[in-house]
Design goal:
There is one protein chain. The protein has about 200 residues and is α/β, with parallel strands linked by helices. Helix content is about 45%, strand content about 15%. It contains 8 helices and 5 strands. A 5-stranded mixed sheet has the order 2-1-3-4-5, with helices on both faces. α6 packs across α7 (about 150-170) and α7 crosses α8.
Length: about 200
């Protein structure tokens, strides 16, 4: 059993799950013992969600998903590194997942830290510096477009990350060109719980 969903149908399924979550009528699908048993030797997720690590952004909850539905990769500020690219390429080439969602959210701490670094010129210590360096181009791009607010920078960053995924990975870009995979940028509003499409590459 492989997923027969097109990228467009996969996004529709996520949207419907998010609507249920927003309205407080989540189904909590695929979370029982029989589903768990059916997945022991195989998995066929219909979406990859590459999102921020923020504790308020639990992908399976906000899209009302269960076991085996989504392949989830998370880093603070949804920052790309080689391990992220490898994980996403695995999902596309071995699991045949039709949709990659780059998921950011308002009030993002990692984006806020990058903005503060640009504002003050003071770099944070330790490995937080690496995060900030990878988000800084998005801060500068947003600023060039006249945006100063953190939530506007988040939208710019999500768009930049989605574009960078397609640019950086030949596996992903070739799958997009063939119409097998779409890469979309989505931002999430913490107060409302709503996920909104802000960019897309491929057949949606």
């Amino acid at each position: 059993m492989t997923t027969d969903l097109t990228p467009a149908l996969a996004w529709q399924k996520l949207r419907e799950g998010n609507e249920r979550f927003v309205s407080g009528s989540s189904n909590h699908p695929n979370q029982d013992a029989s589903r768990r048993s059916s997945l022991v030797n195989q998995q066929h997720p219909f979406a990859v969600i590459f999102g921020c690590s923020d504790s308020r952004l639990a992908a399976e909850i906000i899209f009302d998903l269960g076991l085996g539905d989504a392949f989830v990769v998370r880093t603070a500020g949804q920052v790309i590194d080689d391990a992220v690219l490898g994980s996403l390429e695995y999902s596309v080439s071995l699991l045949d997942v039709p949709l990659i969602v780059v998921l950011g959210h308002d009030s993002c701490g990692a984006v806020t830290a990058a903005k503060q670094t640009v504002d003050t010129g003071e770099m944070p210590k330790g490995f937080l510096r690496d995060l900030v360096e990878r988000i800084t181009p998005s801060v500068l791009a947003a600023r060039r477009n006249g945006f100063e607010e953190v939530n506007d920078i988040v939208v710019e960053h999500v768009q930049q990350v989605a574009e960078r995924l397609v640019d950086s990975s030949r596996v992903i870009s070739e799958s997009v060109d063939k119409g097998e995979v779409a890469v979309i940028g989505v931002t999430y509003r913490l107060a409302e719980g709503r996920a909104e499409l802000v960019s897309g590459f491929g057949a949606l």
